Amino acid sequence: MLIGSVPLKTLLALTRINRETLKSDRLRGYSVAAFGAARPVVDERCLLVDGIAMLIHNDLSGTLHRRAAAVVVRGFWDKWAEALARIEHKNEPVLFAIGQYSETVWWAGSGLARELPLFVANQPPMQRLLTVNIARHKCNMEQRAEELGIDLSTGLFILPPDDPRFVSWMAEFRRDRERRQEMFDPLHMKPPHSPSARLCKSVEEAACRLQ
Amino acid sequence: MSSAITERIADICDLARLNTELVVMARRRGRQEAEQINEYLRSLEFQRRAEVLEPRVRAELAQGRPILLPEIADALGVPPDIALACWLSQFGATIRDVVMEGK
Prior knowledge:
The structure holds two protein chains of two kinds. Chain A is built from nine helices and six strands; from the N terminus they run βααβαααββαβαααβ. Chain A is of the alpha+beta class. In chain A, the strands form two sheets. Chain A has a three-stranded mixed β-sheet. Chain A has a three-stranded antiparallel β-sheet with strand order 4-3-5, with helices on one face. Chain B is mainly alpha-helical. Chain B has one domain. In chain B, 70% of the residues lie in helices and 4% in strands. Chain B contains five helices and two strands, in the order αααβααβ. In chain B, helix 4 crosses helix 5. Chains A and B meet through strand 3, helix 6 and helix 7 of A and helix 1 of B.
């Protein structure tokens, strides 16, 4: 099965994201999409996973500045995509989290929800810890699709975590990030480079239109 | 995957988020603050507040209604993690019985 894609109008209905908010984000350079991009990588179509990116952005914006939240979503696409893939294909309760130890030291990651409390208990005290329930966002999109009569059953949110294409997309993204930075600071970090043409083509081939 | 399965996963994640939030609160607390809280837990003021709250909490638990933890913590005058661990738990309340935000 391929990754589902829908027109922007449908994605906004599935995510209940306001068009004006999206417009404003794009004007200010705060917009997000999957693959660490600012806009959907497949021309004139939005992947369902682009909707998850927008919802994580909104979620984090409750605590972080909208720009910083966008940097997290784009800069750590691989972490939350892995969480989404494990939720969708392995039925695993996985959370995406970012934490702040000090003014300049942050971490981001994903892992089994039940292991997070123990992980946090064994860490130095954190100034901030933000967790994102990606499964909840996915569930909300699925429920809205049912309400709107949109059939999501013929498309995926994301490929399985062990799919060679998924593995290669993540590897390309991580290589790029490692080249750019060693320390994560969402207030000063630069967003990822635009995805390569090769990656965009690969995503296009892995996506299908949903009715 | 159906939304029912995703919803079950999301519920598990919500529970873990709440648990983590309480752990973070406890980890941030310094020794001095912990000692102050201990002292307060032994005070008459705390006992007075707890006595006022007890019937309401027991009733909510009996009806299976989720308890709004920040509200209870505020009424008791302690942080939410302390409210759960040191007071609510004596009525059999667990993390599954509480929420951080009202719906």
